[in-house]
Amino acid sequence: MPQIITTGYKALVEAAEREIETLPVEAAIALLGRDDTVFVDLRDIRELQRDGRVPGAFHCPRGMLEFWIDPQSPYHKPVFAQDKKFVFFCAGGLRSALAAQTAQRMGLKPVAHIAGGFGAWRKAGGPVEAPEAGR
Fold it and tell me: What's phi and psi for 39, nearest 5 deg?
């Protein structure tokens, strides 16, 4: 008998967006370079190598988020212990909504995510570091 999924990804993302701050891309671009803000890029390394990066963004693969946030984890990353605002983004804004919700539920604050993700960032003319040659 096939599995019956009772809650799809769209419902999960919609629920997350009711709990978290969603930044319009223009507002996110205005935060870049501020000392009180950390941009967290959740995309897979292959996406970064193919599409480029937001300058100064911290790369955290989505699958490691909970482990890197938790100071009790052997994988904890000190960047998440800073008293700053964390702005999450992915390619299109779906993974980042779920990630921001998870981070907020874990106690990280303040957090937000970028509506439309890296795709919207690029389309709006946000700065992008080109992919590294040879990768």
Answer: -90, 130
How open is the CA angle 122-123-128, to the nearest 5 degrees?
15
pLDDT tens, residue by residue, 1-47: 899 999 999 999 999 999 999 999 999 999 999 999 999 999 999 99
The answer to whether the CB of 123 falls within 8 A of the CB of 46 is no
pLDDT digits (tens, 9 = 90+) for 78-118: 999 999 999 999 999 999 999 999 999 999 999 999 999 99
Q: For the chain, what is the domain count?
A: 1
H-run or E-run covering 29: helix 25-31
CA distance 88 to 54: 11
Of 80, 27, 90, 82, residue with least CA distance to 54: 90
Q: Is 92 helix (H, G, I), strand (E, B) or coil?
A: coil
Pairwise CA distance, residues 98 & 94, whole Å: 7
**CATH classification of the domain holding 64:** 3.40.250.10
Domain residues for 44?
A: 21-123
